[in-house]
Specification:
Layout lengths: L1 H18 L19 H10 L3 H9 L4 H14 L3 H10 L4 H14 L8
Helix pairs in contact: 1-4, 4-5
Length: about 120
């Protein structure tokens, strides 16, 4: 059930972001000292409650906004920080399916998910 709920939420958010024209989103104020905020990063930062510079730093490291969005919604569903999931995905090269299965199985067995990954 959680898997279907996550899929549905991810699809809805993905479609809403894909269908929203960039001109319809509020553009962030650009200061001359900091990096410019991508409109997608701005929308995600507002949704997630994080600073846009954090998301732009992840993008500069090669982490796309889609991965960040998936990590955020999975984190909400699993009760895990989204940055932890991004790190698992990027640094340890663990797939989304492995992550979800590990957290679901860990919950059922009563062990930390890190032991299963």
């Amino acid at each position: 059930m959680k898997g279907k709920k996550l899929l549905l939420v991810t699809l809805i958010i993905g479609l809403s972001m894909a269908l929203t024209p960039l001109s319809a989103t509020a553009a962030p104020a650009i200061d001359d000292e900091g990096p410019e905020c991508n409109p997608r990063a701005f929308v995600l930062s507002e949704l997630m409650g994080v600073d846009c510079d954090v998301l732009m730093a992840y993008q500069a490291e090669g982490v796309g906004f889609g991965i960040i969005m998936k990590a955020y919604f999975m984190g909400e569903m699993l009760g895990v920080d989204w940055e932890t999931l991004v790190a698992m995905r990027a640094e340890e090269e663990i797939g989304w399916g492995q992550i979800v299965k590990a957290y679901a199985l860990a919950d059922a067995l009563g062990v930390p998910p890190e032991e299963l990954l």
